[in-house]
Amino acid sequence: MRVVLAVLRKDLRLELRTLETVPAMVLLTLVTFVIFHFGLNRATIDGQLAAGVLTATLLFAAMLGINRLFVAEREQGGFDGFLLAPVDRSAMLVAKAAALFLFLVILEVVAVPAFALFLLGPSLGPALPGLILVLALADAALAVIGTLVSAIAVHTRARDLIGPVIALPLLIPALIATARAIGPLLAAHGAGSPPGRWLAILALYDVVFALLAYAVFDFLLED
Amino acid sequence: MPPTTTYGKGLRSLALATTITIGLALVLIFFYAPLDAEQGFVQKIFYLHVPLAIVSLCGFVVGGALAICHLRTGDRKWDLRSYVAIHMALIFGIGGLITGSIWAKASWGHWWVWNEPTLVSFLIVLLLFATYQPLRFSIEDPERQSRYASVFSIVAGAFVPLNFIAVRLAAQYVHPRVLTLGGGQLPGSMRLTFLVSLVGIALLYATLWKYEMTAKNTRFAVRRLRRTLLGEDAVRPVGRSAAPS
Questions:
Q1: What is the ipTM for the molecules in this complex?
Q2: A17–chain B nearest CA distance, Å
Q3: Angle at the Cα of A108 from the Cα atoms of A122 and A185, rounded to 5 degrees
Q4: Nearest to A157 among B138, B162, B170 (CB)
């Protein structure tokens, strides 16, 4: 646990000092909202369409974070240092997933209000508790799968290509569940509650992939 | 090193069994199974399409299981087995997708329908496994390549059933589900024909897997022998490749 916190603190400090990843993710979301406004030619959207736009936008922003996640470790020898230290290798997985999760939460703190301001027809207030729950589960899925895929992709020659190409199909079931769970929350005639079925699927997906990632991650760090 | 003949052991009997089963399946399909009341002759593609899809999905999962053996033992022959299993499953999967598309066009009037959950899940699985070879190809170190590919196969193999659950729940049923995996609502003659086709295609998969394994192992053995006999310089080094070497 101390190792996890140490690596996580290092990642957060690195991000605070360079301000590389999260600002880029935020900018990408804002630009994507503008593109969706013109692409759909709609001033406001609601319901399932809004849910789809929000999910797709957050996914693409997450891709930026996923691509950057291990780059510093590889380019500046972070992997070697970590492997030399007598610590459990899974700590790297937990720390990186936690860092990605935090990045996504920070992103959403800006992106969701911006979405409500730019595009969303119904007011955000009543949907907020449900939305926070769904997005938290979705962020967990993005963080776990993103970390796993990023660790695979960072050692390939074309990592910027391989990462998203593997991550997107792996994330599809989680994204289906996210979009479907958000849909009723953003309905025009008032927010419903998120369907329990989709929350259950998201939670199941989080748990299964967390266990899976934990089981295989050691093999990605061997050298 | 074992002599090359052991690699192909059983290949002949396997091929023979495949030929006989597929021949039997074809006879059953065209002369025994009744014509479908609604779809007529077109429905017979079902006996090819569904076994192809099932065998391909099982092949992906088997590839994942073999990859677990690779990571547990560290022996690269398991990686080769896993690679060939996934390679063959991809080919079968593309076959299943194409036959499925033809069937959809003939019976529903569209090449692709989104409200058939099995179809959509299958496409997602195929899209995921389509990245298996690009991933392998972009890792140069062979040892790292096989390790990473195994990690990918395990994750993707576990993804197959999960994905089917998620997509099935997402779809609204428009079409009646006549095709449960066990052939639940099929009349007896159709079910028998289907099962024989399924066994035939599974045997075909096994034969092709075995054949490819034999071919690869033989090629490795020949390279080894040439290197011993003619010296290191006489044998060109293998270029970067997606296949284990």
A1: 0.87
A2: 32
A3: 30
A4: B138
